Amino acid sequence: MTSSSYSSVYPLVVSGRETPRVLSIAGSDPSGGAGIQADLKSIAAQGGYGMAAVTALTAQNTLGVSAVHVPPVEFLRQQLEAISTDIAIDAVKIGMLGDAAVIDEVRGWLEAVRPAVVVLDPVMVATSGDRLLRGSAEQALRALLPLADLITPNLPELAMLLGEPEAADWESALNQGKRLAAECGTTVLVKGGHLAGTECPDALVNTSGLLRQDVIEVAGPRIETKNSHGTGCSLSSALATVQARTGDWEASLREVKPWLLQALLHSDSLDVGKGNGPVHHFHHHQVLRPGEFAAALWKEAAPELAAIHKLSFIDGLQSGDLPEAAFNYYLAQDAIYLNGYSRVLARAGALAPTEEEQLFWAKASQQCLEVESELHRNWLSTREASPVTGPVTKSYVDHLLASSAAGSYAVVLAAILPCYWLYAEVGQQLHASFVDAGAPAAHPYANWLRTYADEEFAAATRNAINFTDAAAAAASEGERASMLEAFAQSCRYETAFFDAPRLFA
Ligand SMILES: Nc1ncnc2c1ncn2[C@@H]1O[C@H](COP(=O)(O)OP(=O)(O)OP(=O)(O)O)[C@@H](O)[C@H]1O
Ligand SMILES: Cc1ncc(COP(=O)(O)O)c(N)n1
């Protein structure tokens, strides 16, 4: 087969493609953790369109490789021909090649088609120790390296390609990377996976001035896990995909490495096999069951609710022993708070994805202002209370406004929710104990305690919880982390708000 017998009907241009068309030329791992199976998952996880031309079939699982079958090379030629005569390829990832005939075939195809992005993972030995490349093919593999834009050897492979002993530390690994990069004139990704220690860095190495500097290191923590099967395959195919979009190796590595880290961190949840399991390529697409996120939020709120019930303010409100000045301070601060809260509720309405939610938050915002004026009309007009905004009120409202400033509906809802949820819970318990005590009319705060029985507020609280739960299901993982943070902070302010009269009245 000569290189000219391959042809491409499309010009192969790189960069800027929203959904890069990425071809993996690699072996099959039927257990799904490595090879083309891992590649297709990684490409899809990065938003690419994945294709695969199979070089070799393996019989393997998480414990090891039990057999390898390399089909006639003619059939690989037909696969590559079928793909490249029809489809524009934005990037290619090359993995297990098996033997020298396969390597020659792939070289001929690369020379003819010249894909814009070529990432070569020089797979030689599996994690399990089984050989995936014939010893006699090592020289042919070396000759293939200059056709790649990026080579991603692990440390044993790096050493083997150079004919040197394996690097024992990061510094010598980087030096080996520089030697290989200079030798084959391409960029080398030196990977820290095979070293010990708490860190697991990777570095792009190119000594010809192609990169911003000869060595660009991207740091990362080492995850304590045995589920590292296919990390090399996953990394190289993800890099090929992102590179086709960004056209910048450093940006691509900085995008892919945190994704792989999370894929390693979530690997246990897959529960695949008894040996070195696969990583979780789609950890970021985990589907939340209805109520699941609300339950996680309640975990944050429960200790704050317990703390609120231990406050002297709540105790005094329940027993009637609360000094009037403390109660007046609380009411005055509540009125100030509700004014700010109303604005944040209106913001939630502005960001709401459905009309039902928009209406709910708009009404809530209006009701808030009505309650504020009711506080002034019926509760504060006859009392002595300073109209100055207290420090807790100020911080709480500032936190709510800051949470709404980022423009994420989910995060605003998480910040808003504790005021509904904790207030409803506290109110329900206070009202229940007031009723248990025979609802004494002589109780100095009887009229206030009766307001806690408001069924409309309980229903609104249930709605607010459900909307927040649904918003979390539609949110990204990063947004959900921000939701938890905003919610936890608001919970702490709820406690502080009930405690403020003791400190500032
Ligand atoms: N325990 C770990 N914690 C964090 N990152 C890791 C860990 N192990 C490997 N990695 C990362 O996974 C990628 C692959 O690295 P590694 O050096 O293990 O390559 P490999 O041996 O080719 O992979 P494979 O296990 O698929 O053969 C690198 O980005 C590396 O930093
Ligand atoms: C088909 C195929 N390709 C590559 C690897 C290397 O992956 P790992 O080193 O994680 O076993 C593999 N085991 N199988």
From TrEMBL:
<dbReference type="Pfam" id="PF03070">
    <property type="entry name" value="TENA_THI-4"/>
</dbReference>
<comment type="function">
    <text>Catalyzes the phosphorylation of hydroxymethylpyrimidine phosphate (HMP-P) to HMP-PP, and of HMP to HMP-P.</text>
</comment>
<feature type="domain" description="Thiaminase-2/PQQC">
    <location>
        <begin position="312"/>
        <end position="500"/>
    </location>
</feature>
<dbReference type="InterPro" id="IPR004305">
    <property type="entry name" value="Thiaminase-2/PQQC"/>
</dbReference>
<dbReference type="Pfam" id="PF08543">
    <property type="entry name" value="Phos_pyr_kin"/>
</dbReference>
<dbReference type="InterPro" id="IPR016084">
    <property type="entry name" value="Haem_Oase-like_multi-hlx"/>
</dbReference>
<keyword id="KW-0418">Kinase</keyword>
<comment type="pathway">
    <text>Cofactor biosynthesis; thiamine diphosphate biosynthesis; 4-amino-2-methyl-5-diphosphomethylpyrimidine from 5-amino-1-(5-phospho-D-ribosyl)imidazole: step 3/3.</text>
</comment>
<keyword id="KW-0808">Transferase</keyword>
<keyword id="KW-0784">Thiamine biosynthesis</keyword>
<dbReference type="InterPro" id="IPR004399">
    <property type="entry name" value="HMP/HMP-P_kinase_dom"/>
</dbReference>
<protein>
    <submittedName>
        <fullName>Hydroxymethylpyrimidine/phosphomethylpyrimidine kinase</fullName>
        <ecNumber>2.7.1.49</ecNumber>
        <ecNumber>2.7.4.7</ecNumber>
    </submittedName>
</protein>
<dbReference type="GO" id="GO:0008972">
    <property type="term" value="F:phosphomethylpyrimidine kinase activity"/>
</dbReference>
<dbReference type="GO" id="GO:0008902">
    <property type="term" value="F:hydroxymethylpyrimidine kinase activity"/>
</dbReference>
<dbReference type="InterPro" id="IPR029056">
    <property type="entry name" value="Ribokinase-like"/>
</dbReference>
<dbReference type="InterPro" id="IPR013749">
    <property type="entry name" value="PM/HMP-P_kinase-1"/>
</dbReference>
<feature type="domain" description="Pyridoxamine kinase/Phosphomethylpyrimidine kinase">
    <location>
        <begin position="29"/>
        <end position="280"/>
    </location>
</feature>
